[in-house]
Structures are given as C-alpha cells and as structure tokens.
Amino acid sequence: MNEVNLEEEKEPLINLINIYKIYQMGNTEVRASNGINLKIHKGEFVAIVGKSGSGKSTIMNIIGALDVPTQGQYILDGQDVSTMRDDELAEVRNKTIGFIFQQYNLLAKQNILDNVELPLLYAGLRKSERRERAIASLERVGIADKWKNKPNQLSGGQQQRVSVARALVGNPSLILADEPTGALDSKTSREVLDFLNVLNLEGNTIVLITHDNSIAEEANRVVRIQDGVIVFDGPVEDYKRSRT
Ligand SMILES: Nc1ncnc2c1ncn2[C@@H]1O[C@H](COP(=O)(O)OP(=O)(O)OP(=O)(O)O)[C@@H](O)[C@H]1O
Ligand SMILES: [Mg+2]
Question: How far apart are the first and last CA of the chain?
Fold first, then answer.
C-alpha cells in the first residue's frame, strides 16, 4: 500500500509536458512536434531515434534550450525553460548542457585548448582556472598532448574527442549529442560510443539523437519518434525485440 516508486518520485532532469512545435507554411501547418511528453532522470542514457523529417532536430533544439515550443511546458533541472527569453536560454545552455555535434563545431582559427576553454570563458571563469580545467578535460579524452594544434590538424575522431572535452569542461547536468558519429568511420564511431558509455557509467546524463537504430541501441532507453510524436519509449532490450 505504501510502496513508492522512487523513479517516479524524483524530480526528472528533463520534463517535456505536451510539447508542440508548429510551423505555418502558407496555408498548411507543419507539426514538427505534435504533443510530446517525455521525462528523463539524472543518470539515464537515452537515445532519441527517428527517420529523416520525424522531428528529431526539433525536439533536440527544445531539449537543448536552443528553441522554445509553440505550446507546452519544458522544465529543465527545475527551471521552466519554455517561456525564457534568448539571453536567459543562453545562460541555461551554458550552465546546464554540454553539446556534441556531428560536425564538431570547433573554431578553426583557435587551438584545441582555446576551443575547450570557450564554455568557461562565457561562464566568466579566470584564465588560470580555465586553462587548468580545459587541460583536465582534454586529458580525460586522451588528447591533451595535441593542445597546441588547430582543429584541421587532427583526424575526425580526434576532433570529436575535443568536442567531447569541450562538452564536459563545464561539468554540465546534461550531455546532448546530435548524431555524434555521423561523420566518423566505424572504428572511430565505436570509440566515441564507448566513451559516451563510460561517461554515463560515471553518472552523466546523456541524450543521443540519431536516425540509426544500431546507434540508438547503444543507449539504455530508446525513444522513437515519428511524425512529431513518440511511438516507442522503453528499455533497449524491449526496443530490440520490437524490431525483430
Ligand atoms: N523552420 C522550419 N519551418 C518549417 N518546417 C520545418 C522547420 N523546421 C523543421 N520543419 C519540418 O518539421 C519536420 C521535422 O523536422 P526535423 O528537422 O525536426 O526532422 P529530423 O528528424 O531532424 O530530420 P533529419 O534526420 O533529416 O535531420 C519536417 O517535416 C520539417 O520539414
Ligand atoms: Mg535533424
């Protein structure tokens, strides 16, 4: 009678409540998100998977506080993000989220160390502390010896590791990876996926966006979207079974 489900009781890190993103295209409306409800707790490793045009980027932009929904509420780490102004969103992004993108998004003219320091610069940290933390983060991904190099002097896999170091440097509550292996060969993809797994085992919350089922199945929980709605949400074992 008095049993409580601890998972349900805890405040989720991500709480998307009836999220809609509607684009008006002339006389027709495109419902890129069409009523999405999703809770993600601290420490989870969740993949959001769907075909091209299913609404992955739309929901990732909302989860990542890059965009706000047309309708619905988004609570991130206890804060209502859905009604924030751009400058408030930027601050939430900087404090709460580490981004990993398919194209690494490193600054070409800056060296590796400066690239990794960047989120800390926005956060207003002193130079000496920025250096120290950025080097520690580069060491964590095993690439500190390249700190002086420019991004184009590194392989794709190494550049992605730098972008992982940059995502981690501010100690974010959430790591949001958008097709992180999209530009990598299979061996390097494996390295990046293994690394995401390690980060998750260390307690980091990871949301991975992909169109590729075999990549999605690296996560512990899979959320499948189609036409802006969730059509599957459950443990990876159940997802694999649903596909056979
Ligand atoms: N700015 C926009 N204006 C109008 N329609 C849009 C806009 N952005 C996205 N859409 C539409 O919303 C739907 C979902 O797009 P979204 O970019 O989220 O898909 P996706 O799953 O990320 O696809 P992909 O795998 O190709 O990146 C698509 O039909 C798309 O055409
Ligand atoms: Mg997309």
Answer: 38
